[in-house]
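Example (one chain per record):
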Amino acid sequence: QVQLVESGGGSVQVGGSLRLSCTTSEYTYRTAFVGWFRQAAGKEREGVAAIWRGTAGTYYADSVKGRFTISQPNTKNTVYLQMDSLRPEDTAMYYCAAGAAPRSKLSDSDYTYWGQGTRVTVSS
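Predicted structure:
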């Protein structure tokens, strides 16, 4: 069973930064893609960013382009989400997910494995 563990959430003021980490229990075809998703109170879950680990190709939601960066270091079991210039509307529970070949890289229904989530709060 594939397991994902997120860390790095917390509270920050507007304009601040946080780095989220997602560690997968394996780096195989089953976790070829890793995505970050978020769900704010009373809203649907939305895709934020995704990475194709084989090529390091990245995908971003328009709302975070230029502010968030998804990456993976040489130790390929961990994927990071660097979040800069944070805004109050970024406040949410953030989840990482993994899948083999999601048709839509930022659609949660196309991902198979999920972590428990880490909370991000941005205050003004």
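Caption: The chain has no helices and eleven strands.
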